[in-house]
Amino acid sequence: MSLSESLSSELPEIFRTRPAPLLQPDIRDQLKAALDGLFKVEEVRQAENRRQTVLVFRGQLLGDAEALYPIILERFRALGYTPTLQRDGQVDLVLAAKGVLVERGPSSPGWVHALLLLATILTTTISGAQFQGYRLDSLFGELFLRSNLAYLWTVIQAGAPFALTLLLILGTHEMGHYIAARRHGVSVTLPYFIPLPFIGILGTLGAVIFIKSALANRKALFDVGISGPLAGFVVALVAFVIGLQLQPVNRPNLAFYEAFGGIGQFRGLGMPLLLQWLGSVLRPDQNLGLFVTRQPVALAAWFGMLLTTLNLLPVGQLDGGHVIYTLFGRFAWTIALVAFAGLVALGLLVFPSFLVYAALVFLTGIRHPPPGNDITPLNGPRRLLGYATIILFFLIATATPFIVRTR
Q1: What is the distance between the alpha carbons of residues 388 and 24, in angstroms, rounded to a whole number?
Q2: pLDDT tens, 41-97?
C-alpha cells in the first residue's frame, strides 16, 4: 500500500458551493499574467472548496497539457500557489489553490526501517509457528521461562517458511511502488513494515511507503499505483505454485479453528478462481481449502493474494483507487462509493474483519484526489494493462476468504 499527500481541488464541489470572499486583485492579476503564452483566459471565477478559496481560470490551453503543466506549476509556485489542470467538456480549467506542496523532512534513518523489518520477521515467524500448532503459552514458557534454545530453533524452522514468503510478497509489493515512484522523479520513503505481535493471525499489518511529493499526471499516478500489486502478485503466484508442490506439514493447524471457534466450525479457506484452477492442476486429489492451511508457503501466498485483492479495491488512496481514477477520471468516485458499500456489506453479512478494513479506507478518504495534470489521458498500453488488472482482481478475489459453518 502507498499513501500519498496531495493539495487538490475537486471541480464539482467548487461550483456547487457559495462564492468566497474575493482575493486581492493584484494576486488575481499576477496569476493571470503567469499564464501568458500558456493558457488563453476567457473567464476568471473564484469559489470556495471545503478547505480553502480556489481561483478558477476558464479557457483553452495553448499546447499539450503534459508539456505545459510543469511550466505553469513553476510559475504558480513562485507566487505561492499550486495549479491543477482539469477539463470541463470543451473548456480547459486551471485551478489555483493557495499553498505550495513541499517535500517534508528527510526519510527516517535506515535503522528504523531495519528495526521494523526485524520485528516483523519475529512476529510473522511466531504466527507461522502458530499455524503449525505451536501455542503462544508454550512459546512463552519454553522461550522466556525455561530459555529452551532447542525449542527456539524448532519454532524458527516451523515459522520461517511462512514468514519469509509473506514478507517477500509484501516487500516486493512496496518496492514496486518505490521503483516506479523514483522513475517518475517522485520523492518516496523506503517501506515501513508494521509488526503486529500476538494480535490477529498474520503477525503484521503489512507494509507501507509514503509518497512525499506530488504526482504530476495520470501516467505517474497509474505507474506508481499499479506497480506494487502487480509485482506482489507475481511473487505470490510463484510462491503458491511452489507451495502446492511441497508436502504439507504433519502438525495440525489449530490457529484457524481457534480464531473462528466463537463463530462456528472452520471449514477451510475460500479459493478465488485462479487459485482453484492451479489447485485442480497441481493438487487435484486434495481439498485445496484445507491443504493450503497445512502448507506454510502456499498459505503465505494465499494471504498475499488476499492482501493484493484488498489493495486493488477501487477506493480512495488504495492502489486500486489510483488505477481506477487514471482510467475513468471523476467517474471513479461513483465506482468508489459502490465498492465501499460492497465492502461494508461483506463485513456485515460475511466476514466482520472487512469492517475494520472499511474503516481504514474511510479514514484515508473514499474519493481519490486528482493529480496536478488531470487532462492528459493514459496511453493505449497503460489502459490495456489497467483493464487487465480489473480482470485480475476478479480472478484473485473471493467474497468468503474464510469458510465457517455457523452453529
Answers
A1: 49
A2: 999 988 776 667 788 999 999 999 999 999 999 999 998 898 999 998 899 999 998
Of the three residues 71, 98, 125, the one that is the final residue of a domain is 98
Q: How far apart are the C-alpha atoms of 369 and 42, rounded to whole Å?
A: 26
Q: Return the residue matching grid coordinates 515467524.
A: 125
Report d(CA 393, CA 114) in Å as an integer. Answer: 32
d(CA 275, CA 241): 9
Structural domain including 294 reads 110-406
Domain ends where: 75, 98, 121? 98
Q: Position of cell 469492517?
A: 355
Same domain, 306 and 168: yes
**Residue 176 three-state SS:** helix
Which triple of cell numbers denotes residue 280?
485442480
Question: What whole-number distance in Å separates Cα of residue 374 and Cα of residue 129?
Answer: 48
The CA-based angle 156-162-168, given to 5 degrees, is 110
Give pairs for 39-46: CB < 8 Å, separation 24+. Answer: 39/68, 39/72, 39/92, 39/94, 42/91, 46/19, 46/20, 46/22
Decide: 245 and 137 in contact? Cβ < 8 Å. Answer: no
Q: At what angle do helices 25-34 and 65-78 cross, to 10 degrees?
A: 140
Do residue 371 and residue 396 come from a single domain?
yes
Say how far apart CA 404 and CA 261 lie, in whole Å.
9
| Measured CA distances, 218 to 14, 326, 375 (Å) | 21, 5, 8
Q: For 181-208, how does the pLDDT look when each residue is reduced to its tens digit (9 = 90+)?
A: 999 988 889 999 999 876 667 889 889 8
The x, y and z cell numbers of residue 389, run together, are 488488472
HSE, side-chain direction, 13 A CA sphere, residue 53: 11
What would the pLDDT profile of 308-348 be if each residue is shown by its tens digit?
998 999 988 889 999 999 999 888 888 989 988 988 888 88
**Backbone conformation region of residue 98, classed left if phi is above 0, alpha if psi is from -120 to 50, else beta:** beta
Exposed/middle/buried for 296, CB within 10 Å: 0-12, 13-18, 19+?
buried
- The answer to whether residues 398 and 390 touch, using CB atoms and an 8 Å cutoff, is no
The helix/strand/coil state of 402 is: strand
Q: Pairing state of beta strands 2-4 and 204-211?
A: parallel
Question: What's the domain count of the chain?
Answer: 2
